[in-house]
């Protein structure tokens, strides 16, 4: 109830949208119409970014990559907290590694998980995308030829 | 004003050096987000990183933006309606972990307001040419992806 009071009540499902700052986030913003009818919590890695896009409610995560073990631990703890509090029905990410962790945790908690690989990866799935494969109920590439080669779904692209 | 940005992950000294050389021969201001720890180029204003609000402000004020071939930069140019010249990072020069920016540049070349400088030599002519702004029109491919995700969530 506390959450509903603080975030404002919106009908529909609870959707957790996770995207690192930069191109990943920009792509999520171009896709946000797809969950506009749901109660959404945005997670990104750069303070001030959600405000620039009028994306709220939003929380900031510690960014991490595969070479940064401490970052991975901190980011995982932050994500666990956000997921346990928000209890999403679905987790969606456009990348990068924090999104993979979010999908893994979301799946453990019974959420539907959706990975949209960044449109930057026109030749093969991204490294984080490859990691996300085992946690994603729906694993999408934004390139038809990549999807075909890697066994992903293709349903369009932000470009 | 020319605004240059290399994204948040990696510096791109080849592009910055080329812009600095151009800045020395023009009266137009050049402001660059370099991703580098130190600012040492004399002809332009350098910043390592930018807050989101500063980034938006510089993008808005720019006549033209020059960047690496990152999706964030391309989508920003469309959002802010600015002409964008992209220089793809090359794996062979150790500028990124693979050549995905070359692929991105090939894919977006020719779309409105997005210009590709395959070599930094091409920047001077491109900057002096008549540039049209990028636009954020809804594409059928994007509409389709949005509809598909909405269906997955319903």
UniProtKB/TrEMBL annotation, chain A:
<dbReference type="InterPro" id="IPR013969">
    <property type="entry name" value="Oligosacch_biosynth_Alg14"/>
</dbReference>
<dbReference type="Pfam" id="PF08660">
    <property type="entry name" value="Alg14"/>
</dbReference>
<dbReference type="GO" id="GO:0006488">
    <property type="term" value="P:dolichol-linked oligosaccharide biosynthetic process"/>
</dbReference>
<protein>
    <submittedName>
        <fullName>Oligosaccharide biosynthesis protein Alg14</fullName>
    </submittedName>
</protein>
UniProtKB/TrEMBL annotation, chain B:
<dbReference type="InterPro" id="IPR007235">
    <property type="entry name" value="Glyco_trans_28_C"/>
</dbReference>
<dbReference type="InterPro" id="IPR052474">
    <property type="entry name" value="UDP-GlcNAc_transferase"/>
</dbReference>
<dbReference type="Pfam" id="PF04101">
    <property type="entry name" value="Glyco_tran_28_C"/>
</dbReference>
<keyword id="KW-0808">Transferase</keyword>
<dbReference type="GO" id="GO:0016758">
    <property type="term" value="F:hexosyltransferase activity"/>
</dbReference>
<protein>
    <submittedName>
        <fullName>UDP-N-acetylglucosamine transferase subunit ALG13</fullName>
    </submittedName>
</protein>
<feature type="domain" description="Glycosyl transferase family 28 C-terminal">
    <location>
        <begin position="2"/>
        <end position="111"/>
    </location>
</feature>
<dbReference type="GO" id="GO:0006488">
    <property type="term" value="P:dolichol-linked oligosaccharide biosynthetic process"/>
</dbReference>
